[in-house]
Amino acid sequence: MINGYLLSIDWEDNRSYAAINILTVEGKKIRIDAVALGVNDVQVSFHYVSFRAGLHTHYGRACLGEIEGGNISTDRLTLEGDFGCFDVVAGRIEITACDMHE
């Protein structure tokens, strides 16, 4: 289960890569990388979306909303929260710790 705040979503137009940046409830920034492998493009499906300006984490950092639920496996990520719900399916999905100053 993933808890925290959605900071950003980047999805390459050639469907080879997507990055989802999250601030965890512990205050650590992580990046979830979705990478295409072979014929498995990175697919992002939005089930409903509600992006709004002006939201902030309890640390005062701007965000797209609080993550209220989520699941991750080696090839699929699902996140649901204030921003709506979306799935990412890829050849490989992995979590990377990031520096807060990126």
Main attributes?
102 residues, mainly beta, 8-stranded antiparallel beta sheet, 8 strands
> From the helix content, strand content and strand pairing, which structural class follows?
mainly beta
Low-confidence stretches: none
Biggest sheet: strands, sense, closure? 8 strands, antiparallel
- Helix percentage range: under 10%
- How many helical stretches? 0
Described by the principal axes of the CA atoms, the overall outline is globular
How do the helices and strands line up, and which of them pair or pack?
Blueprint: E1 4-11, E2 17-24, E3 29-35, E4 43-49, E5 65-72, E6 76-81, E7 84-89, E8 92-97
Describe this entry's structure for a reader.
Helix content is 0%, strand content 55%. By secondary structure, the protein is mostly beta strands. An 8-stranded antiparallel sheet has the order 4-7-6-5-1-2-3-8, with no helix packed on it. The radius of gyration is 13 Å and the shape is globular. The protein starts with a strand and ends in a 5-residue tail after the last strand.
